[in-house]
Design brief:
This protein is an alpha+beta fold and 234 residues long. It contains four helices and eleven strands; from the N terminus they run βββαββααβαβββββ. The longest helix has 17 residues.
């Protein structure tokens, strides 16, 4: 597992194959991927197919109880999912040329109601489909809307520099939502984010740690630059 400056780097596993199509696929590629990943006991974070249909990218994560216990996705997890997806996609006759399975990284995507529920109380970045008050991008603390039970309705509490504001939105209004990277994974499992007092809202800027650089020490790469590529033999 790659570590850099206290950050856990995303694990990346890739596999290339030209699958043999069948005349009548029994499942769509989305259904095949979701069924396989969840069946193996992982959370499907994201699944996308390239415009040409050649590359299939799958992002997985540990389930909430495992993540709260400190477990992280590693190369073995990615390889396990890759092998099973290889088999399922071939059986279903779903064509692809390259399959990539990776961990979510620090800026994890939120794209399902269950993801929003899991990370309520955490700081996130959202990009709206349509601008609200002249802007599309907001950063704040994710929460529920009072007296609303729908899992599609959420609230973002943010500080505009003058006062605390609340933005109510539904998931169909969001183009993209991601967790704001933190120094550690504490707070990712439903606990308050670092430096946040219970009940406190608004954007909390993490304190910058003073790093002492030894003479002649090589400069470290920025988080997210490293990746692990792997292949499977036929």
């Amino acid at each position: 597992m790659n570590k850099l400056g206290g950050f856990i780097q995303p694990i990346f596993f890739a596999f290339s194959i030209f699958s043999r199509p069948e005349a009548h696929p029994r499942m769509s590629w989305q259904a095949a991927v979701e069924t396989t990943v969840t069946g193996l006991g992982y959370d499907l974070v994201d699944c996308e197919r390239s415009a040409s249909g050649g590359t299939l990218r799958v992002t997985i994560d540990k389930l909430a109880p495992q993540a709260e216990a400190g477990e992280l996705i590693d190369v073995d997890d990615c390889e396990k999912v890759t092998r099973q997806l290889q088999y399922v996609l071939e059986v279903e006759g779903l064509e692809y040329s390259r399959l990539e399975v990776s961990s979510p990284g620090l800026d994890r995507l939120l794209n399902k109601p269950a993801h929003y529920a899991r990370f309520a109380g955490q700081e996130i970045d959202i990009t709206l489909r349509m601008p609200f008050q002249g802007r599309k991008k907001y950063r704040g603390v994710l929460g529920t809307q009072p007296d609303v039970t729908s899992d599609q309705a959420w609230r973002l509490v943010f500080d505009d520099g003058e006062a605390e504001q609340a933005l109510d939105f539904t998931l169909d209004e969001v183009r993209e939502a991601r967790l704001v990277p933190v120094i550690s994974f504490k707070g990712r499992g439903g606990e308050p984010a670092p430096d946040r007092k219970p009940g406190q809202r608004g954007v909390i800027k993490p304190k910058k740690a003073a790093l002492k650089k030894q003479a002649g020490e090589p400069q470290q790469a920025a988080p997210g630059q490293d990746k692990v590529d792997g292949g499977l033999k036929q």
